[in-house]
Design goal:
This protein is of the alpha+beta class and about 230 residues long. Helix content is about 15%, strand content about 45%. The chain has 2 helices and 13 strands. The strands form 2 sheets. Strands 1, 2, 4, 7, 9, 12 and 13 form a 7-stranded antiparallel sheet that branches. It has a 6-stranded antiparallel sheet with strand order 6-5-8-3-10-11, with no helix packed on it. A hairpin with a 4-residue loop joins strand 5 (about 80-90) and strand 6 (about 95-105). The longest helix is centred in the last third of the chain and has 25 residues, at about 200-225. It is globular and about 45 Å long. The chain starts with a helix and ends with a helix.
Length: about 230
């Protein structure tokens, strides 16, 4: 019986490890952009252009939420899907897509954060890009913000007589070439992915209870024999 109690405690604490979730962290938060598009605003359009923002992390993280500050165009027809890619860094320009998320941007609506939560993008320390790519019919603006509040920006223009679905048709260029000293308003939240999981108190209590039960049984045997 004593061995059985100890076995249950071991299974509860080790065989089915319960871990406390990591504390949420802010990876990037530039703050919101302006309520209206200005002359220094990136057009993100399904058959014209895309935009991206650069960021870095110095430790392993799990990205759970990505957002971009977007101003709808004010035309209902231009609502549509938005693809948000986490991309590698290639000579200070967006490289290969690593993860993707999708949301919908209305053609008519208020300027606010648009993005996706509930993600699980595990990222090693390094420099990356968050790209905003309008898909079928979608068209909106991403107002520029001062560069000191953000990282580098980049934009891609669809090449003429090129296949929309071919990423090679969207060559990236430095944002400075279009709007010097201007970046994108983005938010990236997540959790620290470094270190080992921390056991929850319930597991420790179960193990402790099993040990106490074993000690009590041994003590009872000693008293009975005496």
């Amino acid at each position: 019986m004593a061995r059985f109690i100890l076995l249950l405690a071991f299974i509860g604490a080790v065989g089915f490890p319960a871990t406390a979730s990591a504390d949420p962290i802010t990876i990037v938060d530039t703050g919101p952009g302006p309520a209206f598009a200005s002359d220094a605003s990136w057009l993100v359009d399904y058959n014209t252009a895309w935009a991206a923002a650069q960021f870095s992390t110095t430790s392993p993280v799990r990205i759970t939420n990505v957002q971009g500050w977007i101003v709808p165009r004010g035309v209902d027809f231009l609502s549509g899907p938005l693809r948000i890619n986490l991309m590698s860094n290639a000579s200070d320009l967006p490289g290969a897509p690593l993860f993707s998320a999708f949301t919908n941007v209305p053609g008519i609506g208020q300027s606010t954060w648009y993005g996706q939560s509930g993600l699980s993008w595990h990222v090693a320390p390094g420099t990356y890009w968050l790209s905003f790519e309008a898909l079928t019919r979608a068209s909106f603006m991403m107002p520029g913000i001062p560069a000191e509040r953000s990282g580098r920006a980049a934009f891609a223009v669809l090449q003429s007589e090129c296949n929309f679905n071919d990423r090679a048709c969207w060559p990236w260029q430095p944002g400075e070439a279009q709007f010097p000293g201007t970046g994108l308003a983005v938010q990236i939240f997540g959790e620290s992915a470094s270190g080992s999981p921390t056991p929850e108190p319930g597991s420790l209590l179960l193990l402790g209870g099993g040990m106490l039960g074993l000690m009590a049984r041994r003590f009872t045997k000693r008293v009975w024999r005496a």
